[in-house]
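User: Hey, quick favor. My workstation is busy. Could you predict this chain's structure for me?
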Amino acid sequence: MTESIKVGPLTFVVGEEYVRRDIHDVIGGQWQGGISTSSKYPVILLFTSDTGREHGYGFDGWQSKDVYHYTGEGQQSSGDMKFVRGNKAIRDHIKNGKRLLLFKHVVQQRSGKRRVEFVAEMEYRNHEIKMRDSAGYGREVIVFTLTPVESGSSHAANESSAAYDDVDSTWQPWSQDEIAAVVDAYFELLGDEIAGRDVVKSHLYERLHKESLPARSAKSISLKMQNVSSVFDRHKLPFVRGLAPLSNAQTELVIAVEERLLALGWIKPDGQ
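Assistant: No problem, here it is.
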């Protein structure tokens, strides 16, 4: 099991306690509820509590040392649980490049601050549908089967590296200037390809690292280029050879590429 994980300026260590409010102040995400999705970092925060059973969320817990059950979200008044919002985020977290971080609420302290213990980084394996929740209410309940991630083997981290990977692995999102540098370089590559000029991509990545992107590794730059290819592919445009489309492109990157394509007249504005 991974013993610690770094998310931006925060480091979560298995077994250590944290104030939930402090986590959200840095990472963002919903302050209430069991599933919190961050817009700042590629993580989904899962919170469990021993008091969940009375509200219908009592299926949480270890089934063995390698299997953890986690109850999906959805209030009793809303009826059956659906694969929307947080439930969809858990199910699709690997392909979306989002890492699952599981926390457990601990006994309330006199300070009144809700404290949580970091349990582990988890990965979705499958789910089952139960026909009654733990409070006895008849409805469809999603129960996820999660497994702890071994050190260095996070599939979600591999998927998210194109958007967040950097030299010191601190998960800092790409800035607008960094995105602009990559987009410029991609169109430079495409121009060379159209003109029949040979370019060694690895040399370009090293140049970008030295001149424009010192916080990004050559591998990270290459993956980001593949994100650009995915935008080309989405619009059925030919992309640079050797840079197969890689999904989960950062929204800011998609916007930057589409703006360039619009300016060139290669795509039309929506609705035209």
